[in-house]
Every structure is written in structure tokens, then in C-alpha cells.
Amino acid sequence: MTKTGTLQKPIFTSAKDVEAAFYDALARSDLDAMMAVWSEDEEVLCIHPGGPRVQGLAAVRESWRELFAGGPSLDVRVSQGIVQNFMMVAVHSVLEFVTLEGDDQLGPPMIATNVYTRGPDGWRMVVHHASPAPDERSLMIQDAPRTVH
Amino acid sequence: MTKTGTLQKPIFTSAKDVEAAFYDALARSDLDAMMAVWSEDEEVLCIHPGGPRVQGLAAVRESWRELFAGGPSLDVRVSQGIVQNFMMVAVHSVLEFVTLEGDDQLGPPMIATNVYTRGPDGWRMVVHHASPAPDERSLMIQDAPRTVH
């Protein structure tokens, strides 16, 4: 991103890079950096925890603008990523721990499903669906490791 | 599905067909029909509203078994679908209205992100992420129609 405000968006070479940029923009409440990770598809979809579905680039931008208007930087930790890779599409599931910077109390975790696609301008986000997770003791249920009889 | 319990899974020719079968199985609390819509990928992921991430076919099956153990059929209505189609992958966002059959009160809506992929055995579900939506008045925010100046 240049400081002149021109739309020189970065080219992301992997879904992982888009995800890193997404959470970095979230932590810094940086609206331009946030919008640089989104695809320019009209169907992009963003669901903030407990919120409505927000569809379309302008509406998604407005939703982040409102969220970032509060001001303070956030401490954002992401963990336990689960990745599903397909042709030109990657689906990541992560746990988000978001707290106000300087706040000692760890907020409740969120589960986020993030969908990325590879287009002519590299990888971009097309869906972000975040919702509250239950308490930390039961954040993931997995198949038991297979035993050989 | 045959009545003998063999694993003759149906072949779905579109993501839309998988979605219809998914909500039909949910409405009938039919565990075998429910599991027939899921991909056999080890990474399949299911997030019930407010619940933890459930990963893997056996764990996903167990989560539905527990949900269906309650017994009564559900009245399931799905609306306002938003579809994003990619190569071999489709991402559907829907609003779910689920009520116990015979119950007059409409439950709160859920937002579901459903991801489907096309594999050698046709289309299957790989991700279901459902979470509570806000009240009905603000279920979707969209870009305003574009005006030409």
C-alpha cells in the first residue's frame, strides 16, 4: 500500500499470506489494509460475530470502518488453524482470540471460517464468517487417531 | 440409500442437490442420509451453533447422532441463499429457520456457511458452519444498487 491512497493493492501469493494480512489489518484497525485482502467479487461475504450477513465490497468496507472507528488497537491471536485446499480455493478455520490492547482479560474465542480464492491478482478473501466459540476446554473435537488391529 | 444399511451413497450432481439433501436429512433427523452428503475427506469440519469445531467424519457423525437423539422431527426452512461458485468448489450462505415440529414459535435464525466440493463421487459437503443471526430486521446488509451519474 502506498501512502498516497491509490489503489495499489498487494499481490498475495498464497491463502496463508492473505490470512496473515487480514489479521494484521484487524490488529492495526487499518481499513485500507483490510480491504486490500478482499476479492473484488460482488459476492464477497462477511459475518462478524453475532452480526448479520454483510455482502458486497462497499458494505463489507463500511462494516469494518464502523468496527475500526472505536479506535484502539487490538491484540489478535490466531491459533489451531485447519486448512482445506482445493483447486484455486482454500478454506481455513481458525480460533481467534481478540482483546483490546492493554486489557489483561482474554476475550472469549471466536471460530472463523475464512475462504480464499486465487484470481488474476493472486489470492484474496471471499468469505469471513466469525462466531462465538464455547469455552476453551472444548474448542475442538476430532476423530480419535486410528489404531491398527 | 438402501434399507439394508450398506454404504451405497447417492451421487450428487450439483452443490445445490447436496444442500437440499443436507436440509432434508436434518429435518428428518436421518443420520445415514446426513452422513451421505459429507465428503470422506478427513478434514471435513462441522460447527453447530455455539458449539466447538468438530473435525473428521467420525466426529461429525457423532455430533449429528447426538443432535438427532432428541428424536422429534424438525421443521427446517432455508432462505436467502447466496452462492459463490468456483472451480470444483461452491460456497453457499443461507439463513436457517429451525423449529421443533408442532411448535408454533419460530426459532431464531441461524446463518450457515456451507462449502461443497466436486470429487470423483460427485458433489459433497466439506464445511458446515452455523451460528446465531441477529434479529430478523437486520439479516442482511448489501451494497446499494449502483446508480449511473
- Give the tally of β-strands of chain A: 7
- Average pLDDT of chain A works out at 86
CATH class of chain A: Alpha Beta
CATH topology of chain A: Nuclear Transport Factor 2, Chain: A
User: What oligomeric arrangement do these chains adopt?
Assistant: homodimer
Task: Please provide the ordered H/E string of secondary-structure elements of chain A.
Answer: HHEEHEEEEE
Work out the count of structural domains of chain A.
1
Largest interface: pair, residues per side: A-B, 47 and 47 residues
* Total number of helices of chain A: 3
Which percent range describes the beta-strand content of chain A?
A: 35-45%
Give the overall form of chain A: globular
Strand order, largest beta sheet of chain A: 2-1-6-5-4-3
Protein traits:
3 helices; Nuclear Transport Factor 2, Chain: A; alpha+beta; six-stranded mixed sheet; disordered N terminus; 149 residues; homodimer; globular; 22% helix
State the gist of this model.
The structure is a homodimer of 149-residue chains. The first copy, chain A, has 149 residues and is α+β, with helices and mostly antiparallel strands.
